């Protein structure tokens, strides 16, 4: 990462004004409004069938994304509308609020599959990059600045465009899948540990545990209480299929030392043809590593999935995880199915 005593505002020359793209191929551009949630959701699903068929966002997630407090819709969003009034492209770029070791301007841009090759992706990326530079240049911090996105390896046209623009393909990620109808290893918890179903009473401790567990993970930044609770409030968040592991500290008081969380987007079931749960987080606090807590809580979670009538468990993992997570998951029966890559420019 970049090491400097200069602030990002000193290091980056950003455009004073970012104008929306000029009309192109019958498409005009404007900022998003809350009324665009449904058309953006529909467009994202069409794009997903081509670029990432194993994953989609729910309507509530799109709404959450477009109405987030940290998003300035007038300046951080753009949507392309064709002559028939249909959304055919959109982009979002957000200056991430958590900035412990890194300042990130995270972006995404999508173009309807039927409108690719018309130059829309190029002008959309121009706009996103100009706005991202503005966001990074607004920071007085001396931390590294990233203009960053994640791209499925299937999205070959987007990857080629980003490569041609000088982006760094920094980190690979695997999607792993586990059939829970197959035998699940019985992995006991260590003495003194007990597992509880996740609930509001464990939210703050679990957030703290997550931040500690992911401190040494690629580009991970601590989540605020607001960010954690905001996700908990989404319909996809399934507390009933999420678990925390409690162990006593030196004072004898129990605390959350490990966790495995679940999201379920039933829209994906029809698209993929099977019922599954997605695991956004599995983690163990650093002082409690080496006690086989991660495989134990995963085994507990997989059995819960089977009992709930799910067929598979899905998660994403850093291909170069410092904790050896890929090997851990594969020992429990997960298999690699697809890849994505973190793509960025660093300042």
TrEMBL record:
GO terms for molecular function: acyltransferase activity, transferring groups other than amino-acyl groups. PANTHER family: AMINOALKYLPHOSPHONATE N-ACETYLTRANSFERASE-RELATED (PTHR43877:SF2), AMINOALKYLPHOSPHONATE N-ACETYLTRANSFERASE-RELATED-RELATED (PTHR43877). InterPro entries: Acyl_CoA_acyltransferase, Bact_Acetyltransf, GNAT_dom. The keyword Transferase applies. This is N-acetyltransferase domain-containing protein. PROSITE patterns: GNAT. Keywords: Acyltransferase, Transferase. Gene3D superfamilies: 3.40.630.30. Residues 27-188, 193-347 form the N-acetyltransferase domain.
């Amino acid at each position: 990462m970049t090491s400097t005593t200069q602030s990002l505002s000193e290091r980056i020359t950003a455009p004073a004004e970012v104008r929306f793209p000029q009309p192109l191929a019958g498409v005009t551009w404007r900022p998003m409004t809350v009324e665009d949630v449904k058309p953006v959701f529909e467009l994202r699903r069409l794009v997903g069938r081509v670029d990432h068929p194993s994953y989609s966002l729910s309507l509530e997630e799109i709404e959450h994304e477009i109405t987030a407090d940290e998003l300035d819709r007038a300046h951080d969003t753009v949507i392309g509308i064709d002559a028939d009034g249909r959304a055919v492209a959109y982009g979002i770029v957000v200056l991430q609020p958590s900035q412990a070791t890194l300042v990130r301007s995270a972006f995404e841009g999508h173009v309807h599959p039927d409108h690719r090759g018309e130059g829309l992706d190029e002008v959309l990326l121009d706009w996103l990059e100009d706005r991202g530079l503005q966001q990074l240049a607004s920071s007085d911090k001396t931390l590294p600045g990233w203009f960053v996105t994640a791209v499925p390896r299937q999205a070959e046209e987007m990857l080629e465009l980003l490569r041609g623009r000088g982006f760094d393909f920094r980190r690979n990620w695997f999607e792993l899948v586990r059939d829970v109808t197959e035998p699940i290893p019985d992995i006991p918890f260590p003495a003194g540990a007990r597992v509880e179903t996740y609930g509001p009473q464990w939210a703050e401790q679990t957030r703290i545990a997550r931040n500690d567990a992911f401190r040494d993970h690629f580009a991970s930044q601590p989540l605020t209480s607001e960010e954690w609770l905001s996700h908990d409030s989404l319909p996809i968040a399934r507390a009933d299929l999420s678990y925390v592991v409690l162990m006593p500290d030196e004072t004898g008081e129990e605390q959350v030392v490990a966790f495995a969380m679940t999201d379920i987007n039933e829209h994906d079931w029809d698209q993929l043809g099977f019922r599954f749960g997605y695991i956004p987080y599995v983690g163990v606090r650093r002082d409690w590593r080496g006690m086989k807590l991660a495989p134990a809580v995963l085994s507990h979670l997989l059995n819960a999935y089977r009992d709930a009538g799910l067929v598979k468990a899905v998660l994403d993992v850093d291909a170069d995880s410092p904790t050896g997570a890929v090997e851990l998951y594969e020992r429990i029966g997960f298999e690699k199915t697809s890849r994505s890559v973190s793509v960025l420019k660093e300042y």
